[in-house]
Amino acid sequence: MDCLTEGNGDLYGIGVRLGLYFQWAAGFLLRNFSGSWRTISAVRMANNALGLSLMLATMINTSRGLSLSTDFLIVYYLTIALFYAESYNLLTKENANNEGFLYVLKPDLPLLFQNLLFATASVFGGWFWIRGVRMAEEPACGARAAVIGAFDLNNSRWKVFAAVFSVGLGIIFGLFFVIHLAGFWSGQVSRRPVTYIARSLSFASGAPTQIMLALQGLLRPNLPGARNEKWFLRFRAGDLLLLLQFFLINLAGPIIAISSVETMIRTNHLSTDGILESSGQMIALITGVTSLCVAIAEMLGDWFGDWVGRKQALPKDIASELLYNSTKPMEIEEIEEVMKQLSRWISEYQKDDAASHDFDLGMGDFRRPEKETIGPGTTPSIADRRETEAEAYQRPRSV
Fold first, then answer.
1. Going by DSSP bridges, is the β-strand pair 5-6/270-271 parallel, antiparallel, or unpaired?
2. Where do runs of H (alpha helix) occur along 87-128?
3. Which residue has the higher pLDDT, 66 or 214?
4. Closest by Cα among 161, 154, 163, 157 to 126
5. Is residue 166 classed exposed, middle or buried when 0-12, 13-18 and 19+ CB atoms within 10 A define those classes?
6. How confident is the model at residue 372 (pLDDT cuts 50, 70, 90)?
């Protein structure tokens, strides 16, 4: 009997699969090897675009009875299970002065969108395993699911477990979304109860706590080499446990997802179009290759910065940086005005800093003049503005 079944190449063809595998590799490198938050966010945006298009097409086809019963699980593995380690925000960076203080990077819109996508897809999975799977078409020789190994997809116990598990994941990703949303809107200082919860779970921005540091070590473990460059000379049992923890957090889920996808495609005898015959596969593959190249370039730039980053030691063109980071087009007059303002600020800061330096060294009887009343047409000094801002920061605020 011929068991060959025509699958959907735009959802899980070889080009789509390779593109998503490359996307995962890019995210893995950026999370664990000094990737910048900006690049991580850009790669996550690409993940979101691919994941949304694949999952939305799968949901529409499934609700209309136009998909195979195996399609949803394959796409869920590729878009959700493969990237679960990116769904929570426990990335930390040292401050600019390298004083040992770590801060959690603030959640951004791509992370919020990813949480919402994961939650929606998981809740839809609960409906699929209860009802939607009966509406889908079966492969020629019966549907086989896989969690590394293959088994009957229509097994009643499996469907109950999958439905409950999907709803549970939907709730977890929904909580991530709420917590990240609180951190996104509230900023670093807030008395809102949701922000307290978010900080205690270390998902929002703000000063680190003991719980935050504990979760950082639990859910974002570092390799032993990150602590000591010669760790391999004094390998300990604790290092073995740390490697095991790193594997479980970062690699176990993707290995299960990738092996299960390939097993389902093989055991269900699914055939898809070639890469060159499907524009969707080409787009996914090119996106994945681009993200991986960007991640590798940033990783190498960080490791060999003294060799490949010599030009970075030169003064930056502030106007170019301004234009690059501006959210709207800027006219030359606007740039000139900003540059003049920056020049004035720098000049005032240097004068104030020089005066403070003379005072600290005891060079002369330096005394701060009495604070003058600031009236119309009077420009406050930088020191006065600092004091005013500090007083405003410490003043209790209504919530």
1. parallel
2. 109-127
3. 66
4. 163
5. buried
6. very low
Burial degree of 103 (CB within 10 A; 0-12, 13-18, 19+): middle
Residue carrying structure tokens 């395993």: 129
The domain ranges of the chain are 5-312, 318-394
CA separation for the pair 115, 36 (Å, rounded): 20
The pLDDT tens digits of the residues spanning 68-108 come to: 999 999 999 999 999 988 777 655 554 444 444 444 556 77
Torsion of CA 364, 368, 369, 372, to 10 degrees: 160
pLDDT tens digits, one per residue of 295-318: 898 888 766 664 544 444 444 566
Q: Work out the burial of residue 75: count CB atoms within 10 Å of its CB; fewer than 13 is exposed, 13-18 middle, 19 or more buried.
A: buried
- From CA 1, how far away is CA 140, in angstroms rounded? 9
Q: Residues 166, 129: contact at Cβ < 8 Å? A: yes
The model's pLDDT over 244-270, given as tens digits with 9 standing for 90+, comes to 777 787 888 899 999 999 999 999 999
Cβ atoms within 10 Å, residue 30? 26
Task: Band the pLDDT of 36: cuts 50, 70, 90.
Answer: confident
Give the phi and the psi of residue 191 in degrees, each rounded to 5: -105, 10
CA 232, 234, 240: angle at the middle one, nearest 5?
70
Q: What are the percentages of helix, strand and coil residues in the chain, rounded to 5? A: 65, 5, 30
Task: Report how far apart, in Å, the C-alpha atoms of 100 and of each of 35, 63, 93, 103, 221 are.
Answer: 19, 53, 10, 10, 18
Instruction: Give residues with Cβ within 8 angstroms of 178, minimum separation 6.
Output: 194
pLDDT mean over 358-374: 45
Q: How far apart are CA 360 and CA 123, in angstroms?
A: 62
Look at the block and give the residue holding tokens 């301004």: 322
Residue scoring higher pLDDT (8 or 396): 8
Average pLDDT, the chain: 73
Residue in 8, 9, 28, 108 with CA at minimum distance from that of residue 288: 28
DSSP string of 118-156, one letter each residue? HHHHHHHHHHIIIIIHHHSBPPTT--EEEESEEEETT-H
Angle at 348 between CA 344 and CA 352, to 5 degrees: 170
pLDDT per residue over 168-189, tens digit each?
Answer: 999 999 988 888 887 777 654 3
